Amino acid sequence: ASGAAETLLRFKSSLTNAIALSNWNSSVPLCSGDRQFWTGLICRKGQLYGLRLENMSLGGAVDVDALAALPTLRTLSLMNNGLQGPMPDVKQIGALRALYLSNNNFSGSISGDAFEGMGNLKKLYLSRNEFSGEIPASLVELKGVVELGLEENLFEGRIPDFGERDWKYLNFSGNRLEGPIPYGLKKNTNFTSFLGDNGLCGEPLAPCKSSTKKWSILIGVLSGAAALILCLVLLRCFLRTSKSSVAVHDDTKTETKTKLFLSPKILFKRPEKTHQYSSTDSDDNSNLSGPTGSALCFVRTDRSRFDFQELLAASAEVLGSGSFGKSYKAMLSNGLSAVVVKRFGQMNAAGKEEFYSHMRLLGRLSHPNLLPLIAFYYGKDDKLLVSDFVPNGSLASHLHGKRGEGNARLNWGKRLKIIKGVARGLSYLHKELPNLSLPHGHLKSSNVLLDQNFTPILSDYALFPLLQKSHAHHHMAAFKSPEFSPAHHDRTSKSSDVWSLGILILETLTGKFPTNYLRQGKGAADDLAAWVNAVVREEWTAEVFDGDLLGGSGTAAEEDYCDWDYNEDMLKLLKIGMCCCEWEIGKRWGLKQAVEKIEELNYDDDEEEENYSYYESDYNESFYSNSSNFKGRRRTRTTHEDESSFLS
Ligand SMILES: Nc1ncnc2c1ncn2[C@@H]1O[C@H](COP(=O)(O)OP(=O)(O)OP(=O)(O)O)[C@@H](O)[C@H]1O
């Protein structure tokens, strides 16, 4: 084996879950001309030029010593994996031109000299890890770097002065940086590059307050606070003497307010209100007639408006980091409405005109099972989409999240209600957006939000035309369908949404997280649909259902299956799910058929469901006794007089 092959195998051995690299084999050459024989290699003129090991679910730490022994290596991408540990000592691979480590679990501070001597580096992406501490000083010395992605880490302190450059990409957003934005960074950047960094100021954000101004504000605040305290003391004395219970009530109020004020999650706070991106909203929709300025554009007439400054000034918390960027919940200053701002960093597939017209299209959609788009912001690198906050979590959090207070188990009634709503919302999208190849495209359980009544509300729909293709291919649910193969022609179609619906149904019935969400194209042995198929074929059908759904409390292994119960409609829904998950598109059900079949299923009123009245009223013994396909067993309940006859 060549030295490079041995070195690569050594590097591989430091990784965990390197299944995607199973064809790395020392008896096979690495490259021939520009062709590579090992997965993830980039070859140039018969030599190893780069490693592109993205989206492979790789874990473990990076063996930089091994990589340093590859003298021709110029580009290294380990993006979108689960790699851990501190920042790898990349200066050992001094000739690198591009380094992509985004979307991993790297953490800790990066030493100041981490990039010393890497004079060839042009692109550095460390986004969406947990790097902390200051931005390393050695980075500033690398004058060739024109693409720098540091967003969504925990960097703190000031942004160093990189001098003037023609930045092709620059992003510091979603960190804990503070202080003035250096002058040189104003060129080719806009404020989205700094969004979410509490404490940054200066162009393109609001101006920094001068220190004299700060002092006068401080003095003003202090004297105001002193006056307030005096008033409070007097008020308290007065209340004490009049009615003690009122004083107790006041204390509680003060405590709540303090907690809110001290919350570390205040992200959008900005010092003052004047920068060039203040809203240009008018009362009509004229700002949507074409791409005008950099403003928050409202797409609906039925919503009260707020301006960008209000959004920036809102208290906000991070809801989570998805495949496209972070989502923030922001409480508007009216104190009543909460909105969600989702930042998309890979949304440059459409030009500005096309983007605006797509937003207009989305703004016209209206259905009880769709999350309405309220407004958007169009920036060169980042786009922001604003929608309502939906208060009851997502289907994913209810199925797979922690059990406990506020996260009651989902009974059959709720699950069926959710699936029905999802089917209706999806069917509406297919009807209203006939020209889109993927009317939803990203249907999965974290994009099914639930309101207080467990009405499902679909989010992140119809975005495919806007997203960079390669990013969409890696992340969107439709591209996890069997008809998509990264290496071949993309055969996804509207039917891929049906496949996603099928997976969602199976996930909802089994309570299992579909590994399908993590992988592109054809699944393997752990494919949820394949698992369900196998279990049903083996007639262990009761085991397929989530224990919670059947009234059991533990996992399948812990349960006594004689205590389990399922009903005819659950089986019908299981079948619908399986028919939607057919690998062959020709055999797969169409959406219309799936929706019709789902609509035929019944559920009782939620309240009754909670009391298990379902089991009393809808129990269909003849189905169970006649069914030879399924081992139906009834949950042992003292109220069932006919228990023994069923089991015998
Ligand atoms: N409008 C909303 N109201 C309430 N929660 C929301 C809203 N939008 C998103 N969330 C929740 O915020 C979290 C992050 O959402 P986000 O859409 O960014 O990522 P995701 O759904 O996990 O992945 P993806 O980006 O692939 O859709 C998720 O738990 C999601 O359920």
From TrEMBL:
Compartments, record wording: Membrane
InterPro entries in alphabetical order: Kinase-like_dom_sf, Leu-rich_rpt, LRR_dom_sf, LRR_N_plant-typ, PRK1-6/SRF4-like, Prot_kinase_dom, Ser-Thr/Tyr_kinase_cat_dom
A matching Pfam family: PK_Tyr_Ser-Thr
UniProt-annotated stretches for the region Disordered: 621-648
Keyword Membrane: yes
Transmembrane keyword on record: yes
Residue intervals passing through the bilayer: none
Domain annotation Protein kinase: ranges: 313-601
SUPFAM superfamilies for this protein: L domain-like, Protein kinase-like (PK-like)
Basic and acidic residues bias (residue ranges): 638-648
Swiss-Prot/TrEMBL keywords: Leucine-rich repeat, Membrane, Repeat, Signal, Transmembrane, Transmembrane helix
Biased composition (Low complexity): 621-630
Protein name: Protein kinase domain-containing protein
Provenance organism: Citrullus colocynthis
